[in-house]
Amino acid sequence: YHRTAAKCFVYLNFELSGIHARFKLLYLICCSSPQETQAVLVGDTMARDNVQRLAETLGYTISVLDTGDGFLLEMTPDEDRKSGVTSTSSIQGKTVVYIGNDAMGGDNRELGQKLMQAFLGTLVDVEPKPDLVLFINEGVRLTTGDSPVLAVLHTLEEVGVELVSCGLCLDFFNVKDDLKAGRVGNMFETAEAFLTAGRIVRP
Q1: What does the alpha-carbon distance between residue 33 and residue 76 come to, in Å, rounded to a whole number?
Q2: Which of 38, 95, 104, 134 could form a disulfide with 115 if both were Cys (CB 3.0 to 4.6 A apart)?
Q3: How far is the first Cα of the chain from the last one, in angstroms, to the nearest whole number?
Q4: Which of 87, 95, 77, 96 is nearest to 39 (CA)?
Q5: In sequence order, what are the residues at sequence separation of 6 or more whose Cβ sits closer than 8 angstroms to the Cβ of residue 99?
Q6: How far apart are CA 83 and CA 55, in angstroms?
Q7: CA 22 to chain CA centroid, nearest Å
Q8: HEC assignment per residue over 129-193
Q9: Is 65 in contact with 74 (CB distance < 8 Å)?
């Protein structure tokens, strides 16, 4: 990358290096110069979206310019967002709900599914709401197909809760094309969410 007095320009080739290496590089650059405006060049829409999500997590306001053969993302530090403090809690970082199954509790699956549905429904009414809900392993069954909680999940999305389903899990169960709520995530994003969370809730 190339640094100027005002900006750090990062040139990322999204075809020649692994996804973890790319985002680790971006993460290190942003963390090493948190008060500076950063500029990142990427070559495709998937790279643009991934970098934008990571930068927003790190507390930057993003502007995107289509350069014709790629995208230039300029990231400006947002002090309010970088503080990571919500208006209703002194806990720093996001509240992440981890859902690793479509059932909640013990061995009675029928009861566990009802409990999980009730838990998700309650999230609509409680405050503060979580920032992010991660669906992992069997949990992706709640965001796909004819899941009984799709209406609840759509309501959560409408009020700003981010819903992310594990892409590897969707592929494993062959249900990626049936995703009906939220978006597809990757393992780097999942690990980063856990490591930077203010609190993690596992029902």
Answers
A1: 11
A2: 104
A3: 43
A4: 77
A5: 116, 133, 134, 135, 136, 139, 142, 202, 203
A6: 14
A7: 17
A8: CCCEEEECHHHHHHCECCCCCHHHHHHHHHCCCEEEEEHHHHHHCCCHHHECCCEEECHHHHHHH
A9: yes
Tokens found for residue 171: 């592929």
Q: pLDDT of 49-59, one tens digit each?
A: 877 877 777 77
Q: Which parts of 18-92 fold into alpha helices (H)?
A: 19-32, 45-57, 79-82
Nearest to 116 by CA among 131, 129, 133: 133
* pLDDT, tens digit, 9 for 90 and up, residues 81-113: 544 444 444 567 899 999 999 999 888 999 999
Tokens of 70: 């790629």
What does pTM read for this prediction?
Answer: 0.62
- Sort 189 into a burial class: Cβ within 10 Å, 0-12 / 13-18 / 19+: buried
> What is the DSSP pairing of strand 71-77 with strand 37-42?
antiparallel
Q: Hunting for tokens 């500076």 — which residue is that? A: 36
- Cα dihedral value 86, 90, 96, 98, nearest 10: -150
The answer on pLDDT for 182 being more than 80 is: yes
